[in-house]
Design brief:
This protein is α/β, with parallel strands linked by helices and about 290 residues long. Helix content is about 40%, strand content about 15%. The protein contains ten helices and ten strands. Bound molecules: adenosine-2'-5'-diphosphate. Belongs to the aldo/keto reductase family.
């Protein structure tokens, strides 16, 4: 379902094709842990300036208004951009989901979204996930969001949703980086035509000092961050690197002018687990 044009030497950042036929830019700009206000406005504006067209935010990040401001200030036409936000846990359920969506659009000052995700599954109440999902389906049918998906859903959360869904989730955004690649979940999603988006593709910075990754980075004359992002792309996943630092924002977008050889991809795949956030969707306290 996905194309891996991004895996070819010299090809600029490309797109993945979603299970509804729409295209999504293969590298997105993450804004988790970016404080609202000037920091978000400046970093998103910088990202848009250097070429990102895909921005990922969430109601829970409390920076949607600042993301929206940066989008307006960029002067870029809305249709050139791909904007994602997410439903927070306290807004689960059909009616609350519809209201939360309206609130997010108002914060962003947008009239439609490209992608709306359920941020975390309700691990104890699958009916709640389904009623939230039905609200997302309605929003999709009304054209207020082009694509709908989930985040942090494991197989046991996804299967009931797939069984009940009229519109299948197109995306599952999960923690994914060298040292934490959740292979069974990734395979399950792939079998169901669900694109994996990688949050914390740099392990939120925790994996950047790893000696093995540093050796590979040296071999390709790239930064460890670029190796992590390139590894995501060559594994058919969509990385969402976050940075508030202009040089890093640019560096993280320059990941399409080299190819990691198969043996090095396999070496990274085989690294023992490290750098996990510790956030387990079945037991997060929020
Ligand atoms: P900062 O925002 O201060 O630039 P992730 O995307 O996995 O959540 O990682 C984000 C973390 O990694 C942030 O602390 C960010 O710092 C840092 N970071 C982002 N890009 C790079 C890079 N190219 N080199 C080093 N650190 C980076």
């Amino acid at each position: 379902m996905y194309n891996i044009l991004a895996g070819q030497r010299g090809v600029a950042v490309q797109t993945y094709k979603l299970n509804n036929g729409l295209e999504i830019p293969a590298v997105g700009f993450g804004t988790w842990q970016t404080p609202a206000g000037e920091v978000t406005v400046k970093s998103v504006r910088e990202a848009l300036r250097v070429g990102y067209t895909h921005i990922d935010t969430a109601a829970a990040y409390e920076n949607e208004a600042s993301v929206g401001k940066a989008i307006r200030e960029s002067g870029l036409p809305r249709e050139k951009l791909f904007i994602t936000t997410k439903l927070w846990n306290s807004d689960r359920g059909y009616d609350r989901t519809l209201a939360a969506f309206d609130w997010s659009l108002k914060e962003l000052k947008l009239d439609y979204l490209d992608l709306y995700l359920i941020h975390w599954p309700d691990a104890k109440d699958k009916e709640k996930n389904i009623s939230s999902w039905q609200a997302l389906e309605r929003l999709c049918k009304e054209g207020r969001v082009k694509t709908i998906g989930v985040s942090n859903f494991k197989q046991q959360h996804l299967q009931p949703l797939l069984d009940a869904a009229e519109i299948k989730p197109a995306v599952n955004q999960i923690e994914y980086h060298p040292g934490f690649r959740q292979p069974e979940l990734v395979d399950f999603c792939r079998q169901n035509d669900i694109l994996i988006e990688a949050w914390s593709p740099l392990g939120s910075g925790r994996i950047l000092q790893d000696k093995n990754l540093q050796a590979i980075a040296q071999k390709y004359n790239k930064s460890v961050a670029q190796i992590c992002l390139r590894w995501c792309l060559q594994n058919g996943t969509l990385p969402l690197p976050k940075s508030v630092t202009p040089a890093r924002i640019k560096e993280n977008y320059q990941v399409c002018d080299f190819v990691i050889a198969a043996e090095d991809l396999q070496f990274i795949d085989a690294l023992p687990e490290f750098g996990w956030s510790g956030l387990n969707p079945d037991s997060v306290p929020f």
